[in-house]
Amino acid sequence: MIQKINSLEEYQAAYQKSVAQPEAFWADQAESFTWRKKWDNVLEWNFREPSIKWFQGGKLNITENCLDRHLNERGDETALIWEANDPEEHFRKFTYRELYTKVCQFANVLKNNGAKKGDRICIYMPMVPELAIAVLACARIGAIHSVVFGGFSAQSIADRIQDAQCSMVITSDGGYRGTKEIQLKSVIDDALVQCPSVKRVIVLTRSRTPVSMIKGRDVWWEDEIKKVETLGMTECAAEEMDAEDMLFILYTSGSTGKPKGVVHTCGGYMVYSAYTFQNVFQYNPGEVHFCTADIGWITGHSYIVYGPLLSGATSLMFEGIPTWPDAGRFWDIVDKYKVNILYTAPTAIRSLMSFGLDPLKGKELSSLTKLGSVGEPINEEAWHWYDEHIGKKQCPITDTWWQTETGGIMIAPIAGITPTKPGYATLPLPGIQPILVDENGKEVQGNGVSGNLCIKFPWPGMLRTTYGDHERCRLNYFSTYENLYFTGDGCLRDEDGYYRITGRVDDVLNVSGHRIGTAEVENAINMYSDVIESAVVGYPHAVKGQGIYAFVICTPHLNDEELTRKDILMTVSRIIGPIAKPDKIQFVSGLPKTRSGKIMRRILRKIAEGDVSNLGDTSTLLDPQVVEEIKSGALLSV
Ligand code: WTA
């Protein structure tokens, strides 16, 4: 088994060992998994290229570790529980054995449809069990999954499919979120107009909304399952993978316009997602783990699918939203399935807080033992509300800082062991060596200091490259500061050596825990016919954490502002997806630019924040007058 940390002393000892002898430390953890062949070399790395190789020469299949190896010991225990969007719809449960069978079946479907090791497969599905099954089936046959969140537009999907040259798409006819029905297949149809690489689309029946099915390209999930059943194909031998073979690609936003495909590999990701799951949440066998994220994000990959299943845990997935049919939905689910570990985002907590305590009436919540938070800084008010009203002051809260690129949790309290402080991710996990640097890349030493957060030594779960463009990976993460992985986050290390993440220092926004690049939103706004130029910044938002504020210059003949605003929103929805829609659009006649033509975002950020008293030095601006105009037209109410 993975070495479990049981006390603060053990944490310190593990941490020290992980720094003094990282290879021995991670080899010990890796020993607990099933390898077809053990590795020859634990770690080989440099951050210059970068080249990071963990467990080289090791052979494995992650699904043998998620499924096969549990069959003898816990084949009849529940692996996955699914709660539908509609509370009236019956839940579904899968034991490890059942999940194993489903994954094998669908893996055979993939093979029958021409998929093979190394192929990229795009998955665009609602939060139904088949999504987890599809992910695992890809991994079983060695195909690289690229899950795209169900809220992204056809254009975003097309970009991602083209970037990875996917040969197959797995989707469903439709899906449900609250009162809304989402037409997933129809979005895929629009996307595929631009994607000649896709030869096959497998469509799951979920809402049975009418869909187009193109002969020779589109097939129904259920029909394909029947075919493999008829052929008696119940088992599917797992493909043997090298530890450094790609496991998946997950697209995420950066400071440039185009999302990048973060690549994770089989061996290191497996060890790291399981290690962090078991230790951070202090997982005990038999516990029910409810991570409220969508599998379309890294949190769902690591802490709904891989981490829990690698650990033999019971993972609960929920199709719906926290506020439908009412704001007590999470709490009903907790009581219904006796959830022990609840892992959610500050934005959900803040949104539920705004409904007051009524939705908590009659809810027991007594099964809960540990609470987690992820995705954005948690403000103290939300932290205390979570602690008092959900955890009843009996459940440790673990505020987990990490990123798509890190594969798993990096800085977080070990639940119930590391003393917590509201708003602090506290201390780095074993194996993680954070360092703060100033603008010039000089290390900021000691405590009671702030800086840009970097990591100076590799860990098994880190990204290896960005798909199809290794140079981009180097430039983005490894070139800002020499020999360091740069996170893009600002951070404070207080007098006790505790870490507090203060937010992104680049042009990446965190809206309701979703990462969105300002450049991406600007590009989408600029697609609108009447827009000449735009600049997008974030501003503090009571529920979303950050809201999106767009300053837009339109052509002079504009007459109906309100309609134009709506058109722009629709354009952004079409180009990226509804999650990227600006909360505020201010029409301006010019943007504050330096003489060299650079937009001074610092000024726009201050205006968006409502802090116009001290805009700093504006003398270098091409046209200082424009600042006055923008100030006077600022949209300040939330
Ligand atoms: C932010 C989500 C403060 C941070 C797992 C990071 C956080 C970005 C926290 C990654 C936290 C995540 N406290 N900020 N506990 N967790 N972040 O890739 O800015 O969707 O860089 O991964 O979210 O977002 P991503």
Automatic annotation (TrEMBL):
Ranges where the AMP-dependent synthetase/ligase domain occurs: 68-458
Domain AMP-binding enzyme C-terminal: residue ranges: 520-598
PROSITE patterns linked to this entry: AMP_BINDING
Keywords for the protein's UniProt record, in alphabetical order: Acetylation, ATP-binding, Ligase, Nucleotide-binding
EC number(s) stated in the UniProt entry for this protein: 6.2.1.1
Residue span(s) of domain Acetyl-coenzyme A synthetase N-terminal: 11-66
Pfam family, one: AMP-binding_C
EC class: ligase
GO molecular function term, any single one: acetate-CoA ligase activity
Family annotation (InterPro entries): Ac_CoA_lig, ACAS_N, AMP-bd_C, AMP-bd_C_sf, AMP-binding_CS, AMP-dep_synth/lig_dom, ANL_N_sf
Family listed: Belongs to the ATP-dependent AMP-binding enzyme family.
The protein's name: Acetate--CoA ligase
Organism: Rhodocytophaga aerolata
Lineage, highest ranks first: Bacteria, Pseudomonadati, Bacteroidota, Cytophagia, Cytophagales
Gene that specifies this protein: acs
